[in-house]
UniProtKB/TrEMBL annotation:
Domain UDENN: 52-420
Protein name from the UniProt record: DENN/MADD domain containing 2D S homeolog isoform X1
SMART domains membership: dDENN, DENN, uDENN
The encoding gene: dennd2d.S
Keywords in alphabetical order: Guanine-nucleotide releasing factor
Length: 439
């Protein structure tokens, strides 16, 4: 177990993006000019395959009498001996396969056969050495049968982030698994042959089930690509507004955080939600929504079941500007009392509120992008940090400009790779409003 933990640490460490050009993606299969640039990474996913492969991870008894997770099936079969696969690619695939079982059963190896077990859905993210990420979408269930038996995990590995869509796919997998494992793989083959839809679009998959006949399964992506991998409602149900703000303050400064929960679905949904609060920025470091016990090494420790902080650094309350923090707290308190809002409405409102925080503290960044004689842009960091009147915002910016997420964001602006993003549109509106107020 310790050896495997070391492999995971070494193999999936995020490499710094500093010095890399702003747009490193390939050409999109299809592109909609009406969609903001900062969503086009996901739009490019339209036309790609849904997944790379499906693996089944089962618990097998080892020589010590304990149960350990092992991959018992994979679809399609990966032939790592093919001559056309480069050696480094073979190493990547082998490391990934070694890591998957531990993340499918991250809650230790203290398992015993069960008679009843409610299936649960969760996900994990592995960050590779080339900065790419692979998502693991998991459904842990108890195989059909009589008597005591061990749970198993159906895990879909994909480079595409869309939790809601893959959760529906796993529903179909579980429905077929309850009848026969033989029905799972024709369905996955049909999915593999389909193309991943663009935001707001639908793809239809034909699938045959005995006694039910041929079914047409519709899979639709959300129109707003910023919100398709998150559910803020779960986070707000687990934690009070003050704790969410402490977490936000820590994640903004790129501090390490570990979340604890007995329910893997709650655990993964809350972590995806916390990362989404950073928009228009992205978490640029090791990111593991489900963390095995052997990898715990923390600064901020959050108990999602009890809704409390187990461990803090001590300065979290002083990081965010007080007035802006209070605005967010009031909003969160109000929304936590509302029960009639749909998940889509909550997701949109929460995302907008935290994005507005960044608009207010750094919306003036566009005034400090200066063009030189050669047409090259530079960013005046010191002038940017000092340009704000508020002392508390200047104090926050002094720390924030040192983060990797801020550096990568500014680099993208210098390369003009996100000129028409949703955030940039809101910044423009904010600055125009300030000009109007001065008149």
């Amino acid at each position: 177990m310790d050896h495997l933990a070391g492999v995971i640490r070494r193999s999936f460490r995020r490499k710094s993006n500093k010095g890399v050009s702003g747009n490193t993606n390939g050409n999109p299969a299809s592109e909609d000019s009406s969609i903001p640039d900062d969503c086009k990474t996901l739009v490019m996913s339209g036309g790609q395959s849904f997944f790379e492969y499906l693996v089944v991870v089962s618990l097998k008894k080892n020589c010590d009498g304990c149960y350990a997770p092992q991959i018992t099936y994979q679809f399609p079969k990966m032939n790592l001996q093919r001559e056309n696969i480069l050696n480094f690619r073979k190493d990547e695939e082998e490391r990934l396969l070694n890591a998957i079982p531990l993340f499918c059963f991250p809650d230790g190896n203290n398992w015993a056969p069960l008679r009843e077990y409610k299936s649960e859905t969760f996900s994990f993210v592995l960050t590779n050495i080339d900065s790419s990420r692979k998502f693991g979408y998991c459904r842990r269930l108890l195989p059909a049968g009589n008597g005591s038996r061990s749970p198993e995990v159906y895990c879909i590995i994909s480079s595409l982030g869309c939790f809601g869509l893959f959760s529906k796919i796993l529903d179909e997998v579980e429905k077929r698994r309850a009848i026969s494992t033989a029905l799972v793989y024709p369905f996955m083959q049909g999915l593999r042959e389909a193309t991943f839809p663009a935001p707001g679009k639908t793809v239809k998959i034909k699938s045959f089930i005995p006694e039910s006949g041929t079914e047409m399964i519709e899979l639709t992506r959300p129109l707003d690509c910023r919100l398709e991998h998150i559910d803020f409602n779960t986070l707000m149900q687990c934690l009070k507004s003050q704790i969410i703000l402490v977490i936000f303050a820590s994640v903004v400064l790129e501090r390490r955080i570990v979340f604890v929960a007995s329910d893997l679905r709650i655990l993964s949904e809350c972590i995806h939600a916390v990362v989404a609060l950073l928009y228009p920025f992205a978490w640029e470091h090791t990111y593991i929504p489900v963390l095995p016990h052997v990898l715990i090494d923390t600064v901020l420790l959050v108990d999602l079941c009890e809704g409390k902080l187990i461990q803090k650094v001590g300065d979290e309350e002083e990081i965010l500007p007080p007035k802006l923090k209070e605005q967010i707290r009031i909003f969160l308190d109000d929304y936590q009392q509302i029960t009639k809002k749909s998940p889509e409405e909550i997701n949109g409102a929460v995302s907008k509120t935290f994005m507005q925080f960044f608009v207010q503290v750094m919306g003036h960044y566009t005034s400090h992008l200066k063009e030189s004689n050669g047409g090259k842009f530079t960013f005046e960091e010191k002038a940017f940090s000092k340009a704000v009147r508020s002392k508390t915002i200047r104090k926050f910016l002094k720390q924030f400009v040192k983060t990797q997420m801020f550096s990568i964001f500014i680099e993208a602006q210098l390369n003009k790779s996100t000129q028409n993003g949703y955030f940039q549109q809101k910044v423009k509106e904010f600055n125009e409003q300030k000009k109007t107020e001065r008149k």
